[in-house]
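[agent] plan:
  1. take the single chain provided in the ticket
  2. run structure prediction with default settings
  3. attach structure tokens to the ticket
  4. add a short note for the reviewer (M.T.)
[agent] executing step 1
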Amino acid sequence: MSFHLRVEPHDPLIARDGRPFGAAEGGRMKTVDWLYPSVLAGTVRTLLGELAGLDFQRLETIRALNGLAVHGPIAARNGQLFVAPPKDCVRHPKTGMYYAARPRAFEQDQGWDLAAPGLLPVLLPDELREDFKPEKPPALWSMKAAADWLGNPPGGGFSVDSGDKVDKLDTHERTHVKIEAGSGAAEEGKLFTTTGIEFPSGLHMSARVGADEIGEPLRRWSGLHSMGGERRLSRFSVEPGDAWNCPEGAAKALGGSTRIRMQLVTPAIFSAGWRPEWITRREQTGEELTLVSAAMDRWRPISGWSYVKPCGPKAVRRMVPAGSVYFFTAKSAPKALNEFWLAPVSDLPQDRRDGFGLAIWGVW
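[agent] step 2 finished; step 3 output follows
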């Protein structure tokens, strides 16, 4: 069986967001809002290779490590997971309540010119016809709040308790200087800054590691290891994985509806851009689902560096951001969607092993 890791950053973590970094760009290294799955997967596989004394120059070693499923990172606190708020909700600035945006048919003389035949727009309910600027949602919701939202088809008048949210994740900026080797003095004009994610007290990351034999050394190990940019340290240890289970209420809701909602917990990578290719092939869920609509932010870029010869930079790909919501219909009420709670739904097998596209499910 798979096991779960607790990852506690010792310092603010850096994961560059892909923008150029150098003197011409002002010497400022920016970080992403939350670590991408590939950062965690690369860290865990490197750690396992070091623990087992594997030769990273051998192609067999790279293939074996890449075959290990590493899912996450998901924020956690006090035994509960925290995820990005869904993109199908809007917080009213006056009442502080959350209201649902749902797929609705076009009215007379309405339409759009998007190249998406058969899809419906996602609109707010009629009672919110007044113009207002939505209040910014918290950085993270608890999994309890997310499950309650996904199990609430109308979604009106929803609230989140203070203990079930993290309002924001602060960033920590440090200034560095280049030192001349000969004199030990600062080199003129060689200043640069780095920005890292600062974790509030009690917040850490949770990860799930596959049950492959190659991952066994990590089940019996705990200690410090570098993660992200500048080799900043985090403490790794095994922890119970109960928080990853599908809540009972969500499982019951999924068993009685033909209108299915899917929310991304980690960014997903689909071959067709924003649209999953597996929808009608039952590859991920075992059910034939029809896409009705989607609510999401703009795409995020991801690249990296390949250590497989010929070594070099990886091509930039587009990710669907965490919090994105997809609306489906099914021919009959699915019987086992709860088994796919926090399972990856990206199109390619390697992306799924890397943890891209972990999803939770609900109704609408």
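[agent] step 4 note for reviewer: The longest strand covers residues 186-197.
[agent] ticket updated
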